[in-house]
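WARN  no MSA supplied for this record, continuing single-sequence
INFO  ligand: 2-amino-3-ketobutyric acid
INFO  echoing inputs
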Amino acid sequence: MAAMRTPVVLVTGAGGEVGHGLVGRLAGAGHAVITIDVAPLGAEVSCHVRRAFTGSVTDRSLLERILAEFDVRFVFHLAALLSTRAEFTPVAAHEVNVEGTLGLLEFAQHQGASHGEAVTVVYPSSIAVYGLPDLETKTAAGAVAEDAWNVPITMYGCNKLYCELLGRYYAKHYKQLTTDVIRRVDFRCVRFPGVISAATRPSGGTSDYAPEMVHAAARGEPYDCFVRPDTRIPFITMPDAIDALLALAAAPRDRLSRTAYNVRAFSPTAEELAALTVDAFPRAVVRWAADPKRQRIVDSWPADVNDDAARHDWGFSPRYDVRAAFAEYLVPGIRELYRT
Ligand code: AKB
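INFO  complex generated
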């Protein structure tokens, strides 16, 4: 059966912010890409896709259908409800973020058993897996390493941390009491900070005050920032985030010393982001209207993360620091987005 199937890369949540850029990069590198998303893909993504399935990653029958028809070697599992939305619908978040990931891991194991090779599952986790108890501790902790402060306070953070451990189980301990099992899942995870995209509008993350601020300025609209000016967390641009996913996917397995890796590019305060926004859009208006409940979430995330392991193991090296991010990526890209 494997001989009849087409070798492909599966991207779930392909219509989201990361998928919007990743699918084109994969197709451009010569991969045949198939996708799952709950909504039909926009033309700018679907033009790169061999086959787009509209449905949920929780639909086991859909995964069975893909298993029968395709020879999947890589899975980029992007489908998720982000932190803000997950707080309003925690059960739905668990179903998509956790049940969906469990189904994908089982799918990858069965795929690997059918074609006899490992299936690399690349999973975007988040700084939401961290939980700093107060601002004094957050400031003292500085750049947090992967295994510290893993006590998230959001449903999204709990989902992401559990799925990191679930992926590690499938890769290293799956059915460990069974004598003849061959583990076929090669699980690899990047813990993203706030991701800032010029090509898509922010989609409900608690870190999205950063892109929302710049997008509002480009639209000529005032922006009421829901965090304090002194709020500091790490960020990365979308191009560097996608480069990180592709670099981790391509890394030789024996170079990887861990399953989940921190990455970051810059760690500005909201006030510093506002100043860069006004520099680029002199008529921009950023007002400070902290939402205590969303502020509490962001205050539990680290001021910065230590990404030494990613740099050492698989050569992570972001192109954009904060000034280059604005000058060379965000401002020209967002101007273009609103010009069309
Ligand atoms: C969010 O803000 O929810 C996400 C994240 C930090 O993972 N961008």
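The longest helix spans residues 90-115.
INFO  checksum written, moving to next record
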